[in-house]
Write a structure and sequence with these properties.
- It holds the Pfam family Trans_reg_C.
- InterPro entries: CheY-like_superfamily (IPR011006), OmpR/PhoB-type_DNA-bd (IPR001867), Sig_transdc_resp-reg_C-effctor (IPR016032), Sig_transdc_resp-reg_receiver (IPR001789), WalR-like (IPR039420), WH-like_DNA-bd_sf (IPR036388).
- This protein has about 250 residues and is α/β, with parallel strands linked by helices.
- The longest helix is centred in the middle third of the chain and has 15 residues.
- It contains 8 helices and 12 strands.
- Strands 2-1-3-4-5 form a 5-stranded parallel β-sheet, with helices on both faces. It has a 4-stranded antiparallel β-sheet with strand order 6-7-8-9, covered by helices on one side. A 3-stranded antiparallel β-sheet has the order 10-12-11.
- It has 2 domains: about 130 residues, Rossmann fold, CATH 3.40.50; about 90 residues, Orthogonal Bundle (Arc Repressor Mutant, subunit A), CATH 1.10.10.10.
């Protein structure tokens, strides 16, 4: 982790965002520093050191967001994320993963399991706090994906940005915050090809970042909205460019 400096340099208090954060890391120093910065930003923090403690805390007192280290002494972060997403008490709680440099495969695996964002170690605690705020704003029940409360439809696919709900053929879709934002962006910009970098900037708000993040989220969306994900009708790959949403082609 990068030097923290004095506590007065902590994260800016989030405007209109408050909540609880479960911080999972076996390094006591990391837990304490992250807790301090998140508390300075106005959050209530529950710090734990193992994967099993994280799952127990998630069952007993579900948090609004989980900060989850990949390297844990019992259950690793990927297994914890998998159980949170698909266990008997499956949840769409936003997950921000902490990954080390060189853990690209694990980072991609985490995104495939439904993590909403990641921060690479060594990291700035203030940056992490800002990422937490960004994810919670997007995931909130009244979050507006793109500045408009208008419901967007494409045949049997419907997105309601005010309620943050999506349905396909009358069945609700379980989308993470980032998946919802990406799908909303595609639906409101049909027929236009965007590069992965453009999607990172316009959907994630990142000026830089791992473009595989976009690739993984597109793959996950295809699995949820395409009849044949390997032969997508809605989200087309534009070779040498990126992706384009083709409205009216899904059924």
């Amino acid at each position: 982790m990068t030097p923290t400096g004095s506590s007065s340099s902590g994260a800016d208090a989030p405007a209109g965002v408050a909540g609880t954060v479960l911080v999972v890391d076996d390094d006591t120093t990391v837990r304490d520093v992250v807790r301090r910065y998140l508390e300075l930003a106005g959050y209530t923090v529950t710090p734990v050191g193992t994967g099993r403690e994280a799952l127990q805390a998630h069952r007993e007192r579900p948090a609004d967001l989980v900060v989850l280290d990949l390297m844990l002494p019992d259950l690793d972060g990927l297994e914890v994320c998998r159980r949170i997403r698909t266990g008997t008490e499956a949840s769409d709680v936003p997950v921000v993963m902490l990954t080390a440099l060189g853990e690209e495969e694990n980072r991609i695996a985490g995104l495939q399991l439904g993590a909403d964002d990641y921060v690479t170690k060594p990291f700035s605690p203030r940056e992490l706090a800002l990422r937490v705020t960004s994810v919670l704003r997007r995931a909130g029940p009244h979050a507006d994906a793109g500045g408009s409360a208008a419901v967007v439809t494409d045949g049997p696919l419907t997105l309601d940005p005010a309620a943050r709900t999506a349905t396909l053929r009358g069945t609700g879709l379980a989308l993470t915050a980032r998946e919802f934002d990406l799908l909303w962006f595609f639906l409101t910009h049909p027929g236009t090809a965007f590069s992965r970098q453009q999607l990172l900037e316009r959907v994630w708000g990142w000026d830089f970042g791992d473009q595989s993040t976009v690739t993984v989220h597109v793959r996950r969306l295809r699995e949820k909205i395409e009849r044949v994900p390997a032969e997508p009708a809605r989200i087309a790959t534009v070779w040498g460019v990126g992706y384009r949403y083709d409205a009216g082609l899904g059924s």
